[in-house]
Amino acid sequence: MADPANFKALVLQQRDGKTYAEITHLNLTDLPAGEVLVAIDFSSLNYKDGLAVTGKGKIVRRFPLVPGIDFAGTVLESSSSTYRPGDPVVLTGWGVGESFWGGYAQRARVAADWLVPLPVGLDSRQAMAIGTAGFTAMLCVLALEHAGLKPDAGKPVLVTGASGGVGSVAVALLAGLGYRVAAVTGRPENETFLRELGAAEIIDREQMNRPFRPLETQLWAGVVDTVGGSILARALAETDYGGAVAACGLAGGVDLPTTVMPFILRGVQLLGVDSVMCPLSLRRPAWARLVRDLPSATLERLTQTISLTEVPPLAEAILAGQVRGRIVVDPNR
């Protein structure tokens, strides 16, 4: 009979300065300390996971480590009064999968404060089809709404990196809320996919990478930017007077070659969006809105499911911009 304390995990090791991802079996005694032991149903693959698993970003600094920045599952044991065995839970952020052992395993032990109850209306697979990327997209939408953006603004909302995890969910959310969405992608083969999600206009990424002036023609009522760099700078230069740009990514670089002109001459707001350390007071409303505003059929269209053994090659692919939509990781298959 199998030992219930023995479980499968993807573990990162570092040898001679190189990161290796290895499927292995661990025991519950191998897990770090924490108040809640969770049986993981699903995790997901995000851009940051790609950086961690491949070692191409300085995401993981202590080895060995189980990556996976999010997961959904069921509480097995708890020393916290907040959760009891049998409770379904979700975790995103808090440095899990970076500084703390994460979701690419069948078991995890974490702090109770890092968890939220699985939102009513979602199962654990749907929660990870949303995952960190979808949760971040919702935070971007909430930030734009808080800045005053409304569907009747008269101009489209731009979404950069639209084929990726955050971008694709943002397109679906904004289109479902009644916004006209312009989607930026470097992969023309994804046009049909993006239009199915609700994009009204497809913009080639190279167009956004062309040289631009400090202020360009005002095209966008708002922007969800997932890439940063010169594309974010151009989006700022093209944002409408009083508009807002929610920035949440850096796949295009960490530099921002812009000027103060969009801010002081057009009153454009640049809104930084962080999903890692955002408080529970933001997490609960964001998950509630995702249940309300992201149809399950749309979510399914966005999503594919893989096993732990498929994570390393797809981690390479997500960094190369070759993954569209969302990838759910099933550690139990």
From TrEMBL:
Q: Which CDD domains match?
A: MDR_yhdh (cd08288)
MF terms (GO), sorted A to Z: acryloyl-CoA reductase (NADPH) activity
Residues covered by the Rhodanese domain: 143-191
InterPro entries reported in the protein's UniProt record = Acrylyl-CoA_reductase_AcuI (IPR014188), ADH-like_C (IPR013149), ADH-like_N (IPR013154), ER (IPR020843), GroES-like_sf (IPR011032), NAD(P)-bd_dom_sf (IPR036291), Rhodanese-like_dom (IPR001763), Zn-ADH-like_protein (IPR051397)
What PROSITE patterns does this protein map onto? RHODANESE_3
> What Pfam families is this protein classified in?
ADH_N (PF08240), ADH_zinc_N (PF00107)
Recorded hits in SUPFAM superfamilies, A to Z, give: GroES-like (SSF50129), NAD(P)-binding Rossmann-fold domains (SSF51735)
Locate the coiled-coil region(s) and give their ranges.
none
Name the Enzyme Commission number(s) assigned to this protein: 1.6.5.-
Q: Which UniProt keywords apply?
A: Oxidoreductase
Q: Which PANTHER family match?
A: ACRYLYL-COA REDUCTASE ACUI-RELATED, SHORT-CHAIN DEHYDROGENASE/REDUCTASE
State the protein's name: Quinone oxidoreductase YhdH
What's the name of its gene? yhdH
